[in-house]
Amino acid sequence: MTSSQAAPAAVKILIAGGFGVGKTTLVGAVSEVAPLRTEEFLTKASIGVDDLAGVGQKDTTTVALDFGRITVSPELVVYLFGTPGQERFWFMWNDLVNGALGGVVIADTRRLETSFASIDFFESRDIPFVVAINCFHGHNTRTADEVRAALDLDPHVPLLVGDVRDRPFGRDVLLALVEHLMSLPVAAG
């Protein structure tokens, strides 16, 4: 980069949700670079601490963050930060959210209650977000309207349904967040 070239603008997006809902998977599906992952194997020490109900054969967990990047243009780069899902790591969210333009809450219809903390987190900080219902292997037990009601989402919060392993769905989620951000009134200041 020459001194006359400006550094690209950076946009930070936080990917949040409960344990095992697909945060690491979404970051990996859409990142143009091999994502940074801080996954560790679950051990016997987590028995009684981590709720493994409904997560099947999951044997690893994010202990700090996931990080990915998408270059939109030479002038714009999107940085994705995935949060750890277990309650014992939620303290990290306060640092990860700094500078975030918006967020994505990933939810699993089999365990919707694991989404409440993420939604509360974004709402309490007035950070715009979208909700992505991750249908693992096409498994979805609720309609979008049922999920919206169960999560008590405001009508203006976008809700998408798909499989976060699919890059096109991940792209659609991020585009929905951008469109949502653009639709919000600009604060006077």
TrEMBL record:
Pfam family, any one: ATP_bind_1
Keywords, in A-Z order: GTP-binding, Hydrolase, Nucleotide-binding
Nucleotide-binding among keywords: yes
CDD domains membership: Ras_like_GTPase
Name of the protein in question: ATP/GTP-binding protein
Protein family according to the UniProt entry: Belongs to the GPN-loop GTPase family.
InterPro entries: Gliding_Motility_GTPase, Gpn, P-loop_NTPase
